[in-house]
Design brief:
Number of helices: 8
Shape: globular
Distance between the termini: 30 Å
Oligomer: single chain
Length: 309
Amino acid sequence: MVDLRVRLGRLELKNPVLVASGTFGYVREMAPFVRLDRLGGVIPKTVTYRPRAGNPTPRTVETASGLLNAIGLDNDGIDHFREHHLPYLRTVGTAVIANIAGEDEDQFVAMAEMLGGDPGLAALELNVSCPNVSHGLDLGIDPDAVGRLVRRVRAVTSLPIIAKLTPNVTDIVAIARAAADGGADAVSLINTFRGLVVNWRKRRPVLANDVGGLSGPAIKPLALRMVWEIARALPDLPIIGIGGIASVDDALEFLVAGASAIQVGTATFYDPTASDRLVDDLTRILEEEKVGSVDEVIGTLRSNRDVSV
């Protein structure tokens, strides 16, 4: 049997298959379709300090090989999450990683302190990269701000910290380095790309928010490139790869590029069983390749330009 266990800093997972925040609801909704205890971990939808109604509709539109969304972090706030969702999440039989987003640094710190005192969470994922809310990208595009935020959160919780990075920057390695220097155990990348879909007959954007975040297979090559860049520049920083992952080949591309784990996102919308299936498929293909542990394939991608390899 292949050993699928992976480690991301202080966070150990039974396998590298996670689900992306915002695509799996509060997890309870997916229980009829997915054997939750078989996943490496689950990440419920983003939680904010106060309840948010989200953006007006329409909020989503399909694109060529992708999905553009501007949900706007619709949720009932951290108090509701702790009272109504966290008790259920403690029963799912796998690692639970809470994804939090603050309107400013103080809110991030306050939420981290609250959740750090609650049993049942394996880690925190800091959403410093949502493109669909006011000021949603302000923190994530500034290395100094990212480093400062992670340090402040690190000071109030002992939980492992994962920084979820935006691709909407010039140099994503600089952002990742700042997160690592601030004390992040890992980074997850990437969040969505800002995009626009137009109804030319009406001379209007299709989304009520005008712009949204692009996800799905269309962004996979871009996500892979960023994962590889960070893996090469910061080899000691664990990475969770996100972006267009639907098949075992997709997952393995991210793993060999340097990710220690992956998140399934948009694929869940059209195949709710995708994450569950990936666990089986990953086991099967690694057995066929006579690989004893998933660690043996992580970070094995080599450049065609490196003549010494």
